[in-house]
Amino acid sequence: MSDVLICAKGLSVGFPIGGGLFNKQVLKAVDNVSLDIKKGSFFGLVGESGSGKTTLGRALLKAAPITAGGAHYSDGEVDYDLEKITNDQLKDYRKRAQLIFQDPYAALSPRMTVRDIIAEPLEVMRLTKNRQETDARVREIAAKCRLNLEHLRRFPHAFSGGQRQRISIARALVSAPKFIVADESVAALDVSIQADVLNLLKQIQSDMGLTFMFISHDLSVVAHTCDHVAVMYLGRLVESAPTRKLFAAPRHPYTKALFSAIPSLDPDDRGSAQKLTGEIPSPTNQPSGCKFHTRCPFAIDHCKQVEPKLETDGTGHDVACHRWKELMAPQAA
Ligand SMILES: Nc1ncnc2c1ncn2[C@@H]1O[C@H](COP(=O)(O)OP(=O)(O)OP(=O)(O)O)[C@@H](O)[C@H]1O
């Protein structure tokens, strides 16, 4: 049996935007992404705002349209081709693959009690036979998420950001999923609360044997949480590696620039890394060649003309940069 839960091959997501009847313009939010997410892993996806992280996460949940390439989900019980998935399979997939929302303030209906918020997926997907069974499941999952059972009768406005995020997590977990996309799930929280929620997610992952895709714009958040990190820029993966390797020796100039934005991880060698300047280009007006060349201090003509492929070195550390080897050499500043 394969150890891969999600396998994407050449996956692209394009959104039609404006244009005339015969001249439709497409915004490529995700472009030709291939990746494997291993069962039971915590897979991090990082990149600036607009790089396509949310869209990729949603495509893997079958909540954004896959316009080219595809993705497979295989958990040992079922094997779904997300492109050809039938309606019945999709219903089942909704139980197995869930999203934890970005903003715990916006995600919870103010008119529902915490009990009803957590119970709703069970009722919509008809996963329990009666109210008693639903209540038992809600209490079980609330306890796992360290929610006070007394609080189940209250409304979300009574809670802090961290507690609301626990409610969102409980709601996502109640259908006993195998795969969770957590999209900027701690970004809206204070730093001390972020650590609490991250610890909870890690605990739940090991208790329930879940697989996470953890989306963040912040490398420091993925450092202690993720086993593997993929870096996205303008819809493409530019680097992908086990976390330890990526943090020990990032290879892509974009990844290095993201590191330079983390003060606490920026002591000696990374102090000299180039800071990121300028803005990510619009996906509707993409640069030629390497998409990062307009912001890369090391770009040469070749980079402007030819797009580098994501290449692996055989150790699971992939990078898409023509110059990474020479830039890693000791004499390169
Ligand atoms: N439904 C849509 N229709 C048109 N364009 C979209 C749609 N959803 C996303 N986009 C565009 O796709 C690109 C990638 O957006 P996406 O939200 O996936 O990036 P992101 O890296 O998750 O950013 P953020 O961190 O801000 O959420 C952006 O240019 C965005 O404007």
From TrEMBL:
GO CC term, one of those recorded:
plasma membrane
Q: Which residues form the ABC transporter domain?
A: 8-259
- Its predominant location is membrane
Keywords of the record, alphabetical order, are: ATP-binding, Nucleotide-binding, Transport
Keyword ATP-binding set for record:
yes
Q: What PANTHER family does the record tag this protein with? A: D,D-DIPEPTIDE TRANSPORT ATP-BINDING PROTEIN DDPF-RELATED, TRANSPORT ATP-BINDING PROTEIN
Record-stated family = Belongs to the ABC transporter superfamily.
Q: What is this protein called?
A: ATP-binding cassette domain-containing protein
Q: Which organism is it from?
A: Marivita cryptomonadis
